[in-house]
Design goal:
Keywords: ATP-binding, Nucleotide-binding, Transport. The protein is about 30% helix and about 25% strand. Helix 5 packs across helix 6. The longest helix has 16 residues. The structure holds adenosine-5'-triphosphate. Adenosine-5'-triphosphate binds next to helix 1.
Length: about 270
């Protein structure tokens, strides 16, 4: 079997600590993954490896049939779409929205003197339309709301028609309506057979878009549990991964979680 992503015993060491610790993880064609774990669990670091922005200290990372360390990452990166807060911070506030998407074709932020094909321009327009933000094409990025920015960033990440799309907390900072619209848009993307393999990092099971197939729970830099969504998202696994008693429930194709209700202690009888 050929994997889209194949990590074997990958560790990343910073100072005295393994911030990723012996992670083995395989993603097959067509899968849609969610990564959950508490703050500092290593989710963003894992995406840094998966997007060829960081090399492991130990272990082997194979991405799209290439191996990190044996491939020119500048050729590999356009095959991987990434949307993250760190990348968004690099987009100049004065950049026109259509250029925010278009410049991804050259893997740059900030339009300068590159020339673009008509095909690139129409792809950027189509992607903005697909995420419902084409009416903002002429606005400056810095004037958009948080929800609008998130959609533009995902459109940008899709510009190079990547085979793997990594989204780091795309719903962070969105209000309820914005979150629900984004979940709907990602669910549509997940359902589309031509879509890239998707990996979504989130803090909330409520943000898992219908159609996502697999979950990885991370804890302390390592994989706590990984596999098909219904097998992994149990009270027991989530409670262990987050280190507190949690109850998970499923309503239709959506998930939710909350602190487990503690049974009140039974009274031992009447005290006179
Ligand atoms: N360059 C670095 N040097 C030292 N420690 C680092 C470095 N980069 C990250 N870390 C630490 O590695 C751990 C994992 O960080 P990471 O950002 O991957 O976690 P995360 O799961 O994405 O967290 P969050 O949910 O808070 O975004 C954290 O404890 C972080 O402080």
């Amino acid at each position: 079997m050929t994997w889209v992503l194949d990590l074997e015993n990958v560790s990343v060491r910073r100072g005295e600590k393994n911030i990723l610790d012996d992670v083995s993880w395989q993603i097959a064609e067509g899968e849609r993954w969610v990564i959950l774990g508490r703050n500092g669990a290593g989710k963003t670091t894992l995406l840094q490896i998966a997007s060829a922005r960081m090399h492991p200290t130990k272990g082997v990372a194979k991405i799209l049939d290439t191996q990190l360390g044996k491939v020119d990452v500048f050729e590999l990166r356009p095959r991987i779409g990434l949307a993250s807060a760190a990348l968004a911070d690099r987009i100049p506030a004065s950049e026109v929205v259509s250029d925010v998407v278009l410049t991804a074709a050259y893997a740059v932020t900030g339009r300068w003197r590159e020339s673009y094909e008509d095909l690139d321009v129409s792809r950027a327009t189509d992607l903005l339309a697909a995420f419902g933000v084409d009416h903002l094409a002429d606005r400056r990025f810095g004037t958009l709301s948080e929800g609008e920015r998130k959609r533009v960033q995902i459109a940008r990440a899709l510009m190079t028609d990547p085979e793997l799309l990594l989204l780091d907390e795309p719903a962070a900072g969105l209000d309820l309506g914005g979150r629900e619209e984004l979940v709907g848009a990602l669910s549509e993307l997940a359902a589309y057979p031509q879509s890239p393999v998707l990996v979504l990092v989130t803090h909330h099971v409520e943000e898992i878009p219908p159609g996502f197939t697999h979950v990885m729970l991370m804890r302390d830099g390592g994989v706590h549990t990984a596999g098909p969504i219904a097998e992994v998202l149990t009270d027991e696994h989530l409670s262990e991964a987050f280190g507190l008693p949690l109850e998970v429930s499923r309503t239709g194709d959506r998930w939710s979680a909350r602190a487990a209700q503690v049974e009140p202690a039974r009274s031992g009888g009447h005290a006179d």
